[in-house]
Amino acid sequence: MSEAKYVIEAKDLGRKYGKYTALDKTNFVVEGPTVLAIVGKNGAGKSTLMRIIDGWEKPTSGSLTVNGKKPYDNGKVLRDVIFIDEKIEFDFTLSLGGILEKCAFMDKRFDLDYARDVAEKFGLNLKKRQSQLSKGMKSQFGITVGLAFNRPITIMDEPVSGLDEGSRRLFYSLLVKAQCEAPRTFLITTHLLGEFEQYADTFMVISKGKIAAYDERETFETLFVRLTGLAKNVDKVIDGLETYEEKRFAEMKSVTVPNLLSREQKKFAADHNVDIRNVSVNDACFILGGL
C-alpha cells in the first residue's frame, strides 16, 4: 500500500434527488491515515456522502475530491477506494471462497491468506454462496473483504449490522490491528457509537444533510459537561446556559450543558458539592443530533 497521504475534501458539496436535499453545502477535509466515525440519524446523508466518495454518485453542486481529483467515473482514484455496505452484491455464481480468489485476481493488494484467516475467525463456511448467508454472516463477509483489499481509503457503512457481541468485538480488534500494521483512512458509520467511539480518531456528525460537528476525539470529549448535585445549587451554576437530558431524583438534579462554565461558576459548584464531568463522545453526538 502506498504511504502517500490521502486527502478527501468537500467544498460546498450538495446532492439532491428531485426536490429532496440529501447533502447541503457540506465542507470538510479528511486527512489520512485516520479512523473517522460518521454518525447521523437515518436519512441524514451519511450513505449519500459515502457513495459520492466512492464514485457511485455525482454531486449536484459543489465538489468532492480525493487528492485533488474527482472520484466520479475516475478509475485512477477509485482503485484506491473500497466501499462495503450490507447491500453489496458479489458474483452469485461463486462460492465465498471463489469470491475471495476473484478479488485477489482483480487486485494484487488483496491479501487472500488474510481473508481466509479472517473468514475462519468469523466461522464462515467458504463453500457457501452469498445468497445462503444470514444478515450477520453477510456483514462478516463484507468486513473480511473490506479489510483484505488493503486500499488506502476503506469505507464501511454499518459494518456491524446484524452482528452479535462476539463478532463485533472481533471486528474492532481486526480494525485496530489493521490500522497498526497498514495505516489507511477508514470511514465508518455506526449506530453503536457507545462501543465504537474508543476505536475512532475523529468524528463527524451529519444532521439533515449538514455537518453539525467534525473534530478529533479530544474535542468531542470536552464539548459538554454533566452536573449533578442539589437541584437548587445546580440551577445556580447553569443559569443562562442551554440544558440537555435533565433528570431529577427527589432534591437532586443531573443535567448536561455546553462546556462554557466560567471560573466563578466552577468555584460555586466546587463549594456546593456539585459534581462536574465531561460527557462521552456518544452523548455529545446524541445532543448534536447524530444519534
Index terms:
single chain; 291 residues; alpha/beta; four-stranded antiparallel β-sheet; 11 helices
SSE topology sketch:
Elements: E1 7-17, E2 20-31, E3 34-39, H1 46-53, E4 61-66, H2 75-78, E5 81-85, H3 96-106, H4 112-122, H5 135-148, E6 153-157, H6 165-181, E7 185-189, H7 193-196, E8 202-207, E9 210-216, H8 217-220, E10 224-230, H9 231-237, E11 244-249, E12 252-258, H10 263-271, E13 275-278, H11 281-287
Parallel strand pairs: 3-7, 3-8, 5-6, 6-7
Antiparallel strand pairs: 1-2, 1-4, 8-9, 10-12, 10-13, 11-12
Shape category: globular
Query: What are the segments in which pLDDT stays under 50 over at least 5 consecutive residues?
Result: none
- Approximately how much helix is present in the residues? 25-40%
Separation of termini?
A: 34 Å
Radius of gyration: 22 Å
